[in-house]
Amino acid sequence: MRRVSFAPGLLVLVVACGLGASACGSEGATDPGFQTVAEADGGNGVSDASWDSLVSSSDARYERSVLDATDLGPPYPIVLAHGFSGWKDIQALNIPYFYGVVEALNAAGETQVFTTQVDPYGATEVRGNELAPQIDQILAQTGKDKVNIIAHSQGGLDARYIISTLGYGDRVASLTTISTPHRGTRVVDALLKNVPDWTDSLINAAADLLGTSVFDIESNSDMRASLETLSEHYVQTVFNPANPNDPRVSYFSYAGRSNDSPGQPDCDGSWIPDDPSVIDHINPLLSVTGDYLRTPGAGVVCQNNDCVNDGVVTVASSRWGLFMTCFPADHFDEVGQIKEDKPNPESGYDQRVFYTNVVKRLRARGF
């Protein structure tokens, strides 16, 4: 199950092409999309000595108002957007992409939660054009003026595209990204260098078959175009300049960390303090890419020469807008795959609790 349900083409090709050492992207606070805690808090940062025990992990003072709240109903609907090789719900196997998350949010009083579906193997621009009309449909259905988008991985780039290029800044109140490669992922750059062009038609056909037989969607896959829009070169030199942040939208980001990394110092400076004593053992399917992303290369400096990552995206690439925190999970665990019904026995991470608290933080901020 796990071998085919999540980014199968990416993982198989990574193992096949034999990755060598290369640079690990680690851009810092000078990035136009990055906002430090000091900037967000008027220079004060988070200095409170005590934290309310609203959830299992420490939460900043903004969450305190939730404890006394009597109405957790949304002012804006919650929209969940999937990442690369993602789906909405594999009905035959009862596997939603955000596994157990919608039900958990419903149980917490969130009645307007929507999941979207775009081409699992399409370029960001293609996926964005598929996402936009779904946002319009959600607005028409709910009668609301805006939505809150919570996006995993490539879904965050899709959302940034509709906000900045398609002009949806007037319809999106906030964008929260979870391990989105805002500066690309070097895993993709390596793939593009090592996978010959002649394999494209075979890979696209396999992806289309996967989409039809497993994901139950019609797909017109273009794997190379999809990967190119996730490469460090493309995201940093083409996508980011063309899709600056819209001042009408609030941007938040979270980053998964795995591979037994405590996260320091890449996770430092987050709005909610990260607990470095809690670690995550990476899924064996992600161990090759996780180790590859840790290794810095020529011309790029990672903190302590070790790039913290979730097996697919580095923390440095994930930070965008107000960086909320790191959390102990790999790229699969972040959305509860495959069919994670219980908290992680080692880290305690539970995707249902995590996304419930992400939404609570949005509600506490007035979204």
- Assign the structural class, choosing from mainly alpha, mainly beta, alpha/beta, alpha+beta, or little secondary structure: alpha/beta
- Secondary structure: helix percent: 25-40%
CATH architecture: 3-Layer(aba) Sandwich
Q: Which stretches are poorly predicted, pLDDT < 50 over at least 5 residues?
A: 1-32, 36-73, 87-92, 198-218, 297-301
Q: Any idea how many domains?
A: 1
Major sheet characteristics: 7 strands, parallel
Instruction: Enumerate how many helices there are, as a single number.
Output: 14
SSE string: HHEHHEEEHEHEHEHHHHEHHEH
Label this structure with key terms.
367 residues, alpha/beta, Rossmann fold, seven-stranded parallel sheet, two-stranded antiparallel sheet, 9 strands, globular
